[in-house]
Amino acid sequence: MADNEKIVELVRGVEGLVTLSHVFVRINQLIDDPDSSMADIAKAVSQDPSFTVRLLRVANSSFYGFSSSIDTVDKAVSVIGTSRIRSLALSMSVASSFAGLPNDLVSMDNFWRHSLYCAVIARILARRAGKCDPEAVFTAGLLHDIGELVIFNRLPEQAKDALLRVLDSVDDLPIHEAERQAMGFDHAQVGAELARQWNLPSLLQECIGFHHSVCDAEHYPREVALVHIANILAQMAEIDTLDQEDVTAVDAHAWEMCGIERGAEIVELVVREAQEEIVELEKLFIDSGQSATR
Amino acid sequence: MAPPPIPRPPLVLPGFEHVRRNWNHTYGTYAARLLPGEYYVTSNDEGVYTTLGSCISACIRDRVSGIGGMNHFMLPASADADGWKSTSLSAATRYGNFAMEHLINVILKHGGQRQNLEVKLFGGGRILANMTDVGMRNITFARDYLATEGLRVTAEDVGDIYPRMVVYFPATGKVRVKRLRSLHNNVIVEEETRYLSAIESKPVGGDIELF
User: DSSP of A162-212, one letter per residue?
Assistant: First the structure.
């Protein structure tokens, strides 16, 4: 398909501009290698001093709420677990990975704040929903809009056209539909292609690719639905509203798909909790992520 | 079932032919889209809408006859640092007066009664953290202007850090204000900056046409 080829080309165009951190790539390899041990992973972490410091900071923060203090990498890896360390490594490096893709349409601070809101809300909802890994869903939330950064950097004129279409529409045209009108595809498709070219886990590929079209989910409907809902509640947290009329509507299937009963109470609870946590989380995941590359 | 055909747009008052109007599915009416510096008055059942960053919009109507409209403006910056403050401030105020007077005068000219006027005020957000609070300056101006004119503000949503979309229906006085997510900040700022440099590049002496 022509649009598909365009998307593949677009993402190839940012190769080299966005690079995942060495430590993430290394951890990823080790986890996939059946012969590697926890000690190997701890060693890989230790080789990146800045990552080590930040990992220990997150491990001891309210993000996990462990009761005992975690003062060594070995302890962190064994307490947090290897697959969660992988999610965490990706989450902690993603903001700095995208520093090479600047744009004039949205400030990185605002972009990552929304992403982080989505991540933390997805994680809260995932704990309620059960039957899924809240840490993986957190990472999916943090990454859900990465396609936007590719579009904003590579196709600034069309991206601006899409944003103007949203402002011109009193009918609440969602951004992904405006993008399809302006360029024939949307940021979810672009993000999914980037995740595919990076060989990110298929859970992440699906959450990124289908966060605006939950019914297309193949193997991870629950996680996709969680990220979809979290994206919309994140917008409510950002503009500080509890009225769902103020934001795009949640897909009616999404609540069913993740097994959470919909209702105003849950929305209020989650939005307020996220608003309380956001400042602390920005310090852990965004500020430090960017200063690491400065 | 085929959607009902879109009716023809209602007649426009003279002087507003250039304002873009679109059929709006949500409200089932036409709606005029205001850009910074524009205003629109209507005696029909139609909407007026705009997006506001640090700009401000007054929505004014005759609550009895239903004629009314909206403006969208900001004060040009005063050049404090260059010692031109007093001159620039008065020029800025003159610009604001101009925006407010035009809206009110056209409403009155088409049958609105001063004692029936109902005013709502929106915008003046501080959408860029590193910017001086030009939004507040616009709010203060609008409030002062309305107080001087003896016009009471019946509803407002001003200040704070959010850009807004405002949809106003003069016939009923109904307003919908929606805060916009920060994704839209830069595009709105760019639109307002372009407008600001246009009004600032007008020589002060050229103001004669305003009065």
Answer: HHHHHHH-TT---HHHHHHHHHSS-HHHHHHHHHHHTT--HHHHHHHHHTT
**Alpha helix (H) residue ranges in chain A:** 2-12, 22-32, 38-46, 49-59, 73-80, 82-97, 108-129, 134-143, 146-154, 156-168, 175-183, 187-197, 202-210, 221-238, 252-258, 264-281, 288-291
Q: Which positions ≥6 away from A7 have C-beta within 8 Å? A: A185, A189, A190, A193
- Cα distances from A201 to residues A187, B30, B38, in angstroms, run 19, 48, 51
Q: Do B179 and A241 touch (CB under 8 A)?
A: yes
Q: Which of A161, A170, A232 to mutate to test the interface with B (most CBs of B within 10 A)?
A: A170
Predicted confidence (pLDDT) per residue in B45-62, tens digit: 999 999 999 999 999 999
Specify which residues B30 forms β-bridges with: B23
Confidence (pTM): 0.92
CB-based contact (8 Å) between B3 and chain A?
no
CA dist., res. B41 & res. A285, Å (int): 49
Q: pLDDT tens digits, residue range B155-203?
A: 999 999 999 999 999 999 999 999 999 999 999 999 999 999 988 876 5
